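Appendix B. Raw example, untouched.
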Amino acid sequence: MRILYLHQHFSTPDGATATRSHAMARALAQRGHAVTLACGQFSGAATGLSGPFRRGRRSGRVSGFELVEFAIPCGNAMSLKARTAAFLRYAARAGWMAARGEWDLVIASSTPLTVALPALAARRLRGTPFLFEIRDPWPELPAALGLRAPGLLAAMERLAGAACRNASAVVALTEGIGATALARGTPAGRLHVIPQGCDLDLFGPQVAPWRPEAAGSQEMLAVYAGAHGRANGLGLLLDAAARLRAAGERRVRLVLVGEGGERPALVADAAARGLGNVTFLDPLPKRELARLLAGSRAGLLCLAPLPEFAEWTAPNKLMDYLAAGLPVLSNVPGEAARILSGGAGETCADAASLAAALSRLAADPGRREAMGRAARDLAVRRFDRRLLAARFVTAVEGAAAEGAATSRAAAAPGWDAA
């Protein structure tokens, strides 16, 4: 098949951000499909392309598939207005590709939700079927985070509904996200829940460890690796560090890796509070992050205390921690808590319980190692990305077959945009 894969925030493992679309595109190419992936320039990403941009784009072969990169910068540290502009610019460029190319299937991976626009355009104009992947449910999460723009939220709802109803298949990363698709009209037979996966080759016991210079030789490193934005609620980690310091606990160092709009305030707060047990690092390429995790003894998963996050988020950092064989301490209920309930980690509701859990891990190497083994076993048994990629390929091929059977009707006027 000729597949157009749309993911604005694509990165190879040489970058410092999520690599799911790289793994899925590579699996499709290995299956024999002709894959073209179109992306923008996401902060922290590494596309694998290095040539000059011509007319706002460059292209080349990456991991067995064709990659088209548009000169459209985007990142978590940008303002909402700037990111929205980047989303719309990407949708326009991708829409041109989707509507003009001879594609058998379009894959639209959200977020941002605007990636659905080119897929819907190709379906309406050419009858091209599409698979819609939902990584984060919009508009639910923006609304939960305080977005107060009724017109914009209504437009998002309309777009999300059109994508869910008109897709030949929908892939959701959690059961909770899948429920939002069903509520918007996705037939149950077209829904596939395929969670985030673990890269067992990149992370694991085979990796040579690395520790930052600030870390004492006897300190237990607990790492948070991810965005530093409002949604992440990282003030909790600083509060836990303050409690550890006040209690005289000197065996634990928190390492926060990443960038985002809240990072300057977090760095300033840590300095003002004299938190010498906290180290901030710039985003690390996945291969370097793997070395840091190999030199650490716990992974930290943290989100703002919003009930919507319980079932509607699928943090890829959790998968990295599990693959690295780290016990995970998390404040996230719901899906994440269920994953960790078998012994791979603990759910800590507040700063006090997180500080206590960190102290217990530092004091008990045997328990720490047992939890780490449980984490790695979970990664191998349930979240091996190679197995999940095979399921994704099956969903893609099923979507193409479904779309081919109904393409004439899909191309006719009157498609469902209500």
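End of appendix B.
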